[in-house]
Amino acid sequence: MSVRVERVDLPGIGTRHDVITSAGRRIGVVSHRTGERELAIFDLDDPDSAADSIDLSDSEASALADILGASVMLGQLLGIQEQAGGLATEQLVLPTSSPYAGGVLGDTKARTRTSTSIVAIVRGTVVIPSPTPMTPLQAGDTIIAVGTRSGLDSLAQLLNSGPG
């Protein structure tokens, strides 16, 4: 799937990267030389005129990128699940009583113990895609995992009570 992205130099301001949607809509991200960012939605009738723009702080831009990235990743996982017999995805909430709450993901040894892959962690409104073994775990985290049905059942047991 190909997406059209255009780069526009804005002399004295910075650069703008526009994504042209399949419906012909133009969405731009203006990166100012000062480091500021804004999201611009362009007028349908005049692609050079922004119908609206939103200033984004660093944390807001990062949160938006995380949400969009995680949304795409989860959609791809669902597509894989439909194509690959025996493969499933699951969302598991890390209970307060878990021996891993307050530790790091690597402490679980989940891949070795259950043959599953933890592909993301959702903490409140923050998505942590592709967590590393050093990613902290907190009670209430939603663990997004991929594996066989039996592997995911083993992962749920592991997160609830620990090994063995």
Contiguous helical run count: 3
SSE order, one letter for each helix or strand = EEEEEHEHEEEH
DSSP helix fraction: 25-40%
Give unreliable regions as ranges.
none
Distance between the termini: 45 Å
Q: What share of residues are in beta strands?
A: 25-35%
Rounded to an integer in angstroms, the radius of gyration calculated over CA atoms is: 20 Å
The neighbouring-strand order within the major sheet is 1-2-3-4-5
Return the structural class.
alpha+beta
CATH classification class of the largest domain: Alpha Beta
Question: Judging from the principal axes of the Cα atoms, what is the shape?
Answer: elongated
Counting copies of identical and different chains, the oligomeric state is single chain
User: How would you state the average pLDDT, rounded?
Assistant: 82
Q: CATH homologous superfamily of the largest domain?
A: Regulator of K+ conductance, C-terminal domain
Number of domains: 2
Q: Could you describe the largest sheet, including whether it forms a barrel?
A: 5 strands, antiparallel
Number of strands: 9
Short description:
The protein is an alpha+beta fold and 164 residues long.
Describe the structure.
- The chain is built from three helices and nine strands, in the order E-E-E-E-E-H-E-H-E-E-E-H.
- The protein has 164 residues and is an alpha+beta fold.
- It folds into two domains: 4-56; 63-161, Alpha-Beta Plaits.
- Strands 1-2-3-4-5 form a five-stranded antiparallel β-sheet. A four-stranded antiparallel β-sheet has the order 6-9-7-8.
- Strand 4 and strand 5 (50-56) form a beta hairpin.
